[in-house]
Amino acid sequence: MESYLTYLTAAQITNIVPEIAPIMLCIIVWIEIFPTASRGWISELCATYVILSVMNYLIIIPIWGASVILIIAHYIDYIIIHID
Q1: CA-CA distances (angstroms) from residue 11 to 3, 27, 63, 65?
Q2: pLDDT tens for residues 36-55?
Q3: Number of structural domains the chain divides into
Q4: In the predicted structure, residue 20 carries a pLDDT above the cut 70
Q5: Is the Cβ–Cβ distance between 23 and 46 less than 8 Å?
Q6: Distance between CA atoms of 6 and 33, rounded to whole angstroms?
Q7: Which of the four pLDDT bands, split at 50, 70 and 90, describes residue 81?
């Protein structure tokens, strides 16, 4: 249930403030500035926001651009996983 609520929150934030994906990505990278108790849900919220923003962007661009964006998103995810 918690993941679903996080998804709904990220979807609402995407609709309210649609262009802050780079800021959310920076929050994921600098998650150590937050208290330990809240790192998990903040990181999940920001990651879900970035994924939803990429999905919304992929809807409006042609197929060749979508493949480039998907490759970039894959490498960003790889970098985030291996930061620690």
Answers
A1: 12, 17, 24, 23
A2: 888 888 888 888 898 888 88
A3: 1
A4: yes
A5: no
A6: 20
A7: confident
The parent domain of residue 39 ranges over 2-81
Sort 49 into a burial class: Cβ within 10 Å, 0-12 / 13-18 / 19+: buried
List C-alpha distances in Å: 9 to 62, 69, 79, 82: 28, 24, 25, 26
Instruction: Provide the token pair at 33.
Output: 């500035």
Q: Could you identify the residue written with the tokens 């994924």?
A: 51
Confidence band for 1, pLDDT divided at 50, 70 and 90: low
- Residue 84 pLDDT more than 70? no
